[in-house]
Amino acid sequence: MLLVGLSGSLGSGKSTVGRALEARGAAVIDTDQVAREVVAPGSAGAQAVFDHFGQGVRGADGAIDRPALAAIVFADPAPRAALEAITHPLVHREVARRVAGLGHSLVVVEIPLLTTANRDLYGFDVVVLVETGPDVAVRRAVERGMAEDDARARMAAQPTAAQRRQVADRTLVNDGTRARLEIAVDELWGWLQQQSPHA
């Protein structure tokens, strides 16, 4: 099995690339989705969030009030680190469980916040970075319904492009048309086919 880490900033289009790789035969695990599941209402993860951040982040339906929590964690590195300390181990364990249950020869894990440390933790054989310009990324986030100030705050809290490139084995630039992206994904797919585990 080749285990691929697929990373990129908010609005970079990594999920679009993930879907394109899935269409070509990869198994794809989205850590954003896993992160939502491990703090679902009634879960131990949700309770840990309420214990740390208080009832101000509990919605009327008993679920985490994501906008309220985001307002806290994207304004200050300390609460963001506290949230990551709660959720990241839960996400890693669930991803590892899912990977172990797959029979695919190529598994892609979409992971927005990728560092050298969690590259080693997940055991990725290769890392692909999806990159686009900051203005394009913000525009895409706004088109999906996010306020521009929120999008810029989240991007500012993420690793820089240079920091991401230090972890990546290959970079895919996604700042053009969908047709150009499909060509780039075809090239990426061919490259991934040539990689052997632990290359």
| Total beta-strand segments | 5
Largest sheet: 5 strands, parallel
Shape: globular
Q: Can you tell me the CATH class of the largest domain?
A: Alpha Beta
Q: What Rg do the Cα atoms give?
A: 17 Å
- The percent range for strand residues is 5-15%
How far is the first residue's CA from the last residue's CA? 12 Å
- Report the mean per-residue pLDDT as an integer: 88
| H/E element order | EHEHHHHEHEHHHEH
Strand order of the largest sheet: 2-3-1-4-5
CATH H-level superfamily of the largest domain = P-loop containing nucleotide triphosphate hydrolases
CATH architecture of the largest domain: 3-Layer(aba) Sandwich
CATH topology grouping of the largest domain: Rossmann fold
User: Looking at the chains present, what oligomeric state does this protein adopt?
Assistant: single chain
Structural class: alpha/beta
User: Percent helix among the residues?
Assistant: 55-70%
Overall tally of domains:
2
Q: Number of helical segments?
A: 10
Unreliable spans: none
